[in-house]
Amino acid sequence: MQDQRPAVYVIDDDPSVRDGLDSLLRSVGYDTRGFASPRDFLQHPRSSGPACIVLDVRMPDASGLDFQDELTRAGYLTPIIFLTGHGDVPMSVRAMKAGAVEFLLKPFREQDLLDAIRQALELDRARLLKQAATVDLHEHFASLTPREREVMALVARGLLNKQIAAEIGLSEITVKVHRGQVMRKMHADSVADLIRMADSLGLAADTKGNGNVPWSR
């Protein structure tokens, strides 16, 4: 992800606006792609790296605000910056409440747009990093044996090795071995780190220690 140039998708039915923004954004190093409508955007493959959308509010075939709602329902969380020549307060409030990064009126200062794009890309980069960390966490958890998952859940409840041994009917030394395997496979640097992972996985609510989190079924 770090090797990919940030992508900025410009969706505006005015070709002069698309061309002007393409020139501006490429001059500062962004991978820019212009679309005349939301439909054109949806038909085009999108980058897996950091990205944002610069979206016109009013277009002949679709409202930018309605398209924002459509993307949200589809789980497409790329940050949006709105541009409009006919904006009003209720419109801007709706956009911002729905998660837009900025709502700029045309004509706008180039620096204002660049600042908004920089902020949007930082937000998307953080989202992707969190998403990747979650995938890694689930993969690490999937590598545990059923017994190791049970031990992990009991460690997350704050039980000591002796207590875990009594709980599941193993010797204390065997529990210690399982616990060490859990720490290694989960890439946990400390018990506190492991507890945070267990909380993210929903193991804290699994008092039986079976690792029955929804995604693993």
SSE blueprint:
Elements: E1 7-11, H1 15-27, E2 31-35, H2 38-42, E3 51-56, H3 64-73, E4 80-84, H4 89-97, E5 102-105, H5 110-142, H6 146-156, H7 161-168, H8 172-185, H9 191-201
Parallel strand pairs: 1-2, 1-3, 3-4, 4-5
Helix pairs in contact: 6-8, 6-9, 7-8
Report what the structure shows.
The structure is a single chain. The protein has 217 residues and is of the alpha/beta class. The chain has 2 domains: 7-133, Response regulator (Rossmann fold, 3-Layer(aba) Sandwich), CATH 3.40.50.2300; 143-212, Arc Repressor Mutant, subunit A, CATH 1.10.10.10. Helices cover 53% and strands 12% of the residues. It is built from 9 helices and 5 strands; from the N terminus they run E-H-E-H-E-H-E-H-E-H-H-H-H-H. It has helices at residues 15-27, 38-42, 64-73, 89-97, 110-142, 146-156, 161-168, 172-185, 191-201, and strands spanning 7-11, 31-35, 51-56, 80-84, 102-105. A 5-stranded parallel β-sheet has the order 2-1-3-4-5, sandwiched between helices. Strand 1, helix 1 and strand 2 (31-35) form a beta-alpha-beta unit. Helix 6 crosses helix 9 (191-201). The longest helix is centred in the middle third of the chain and has 33 residues, at 110-142. The radius of gyration is 24 Å and the shape is elongated. The two termini are 30 Å apart. 30% of the residues are buried. Mean pLDDT is 89; it is low at 206-217.
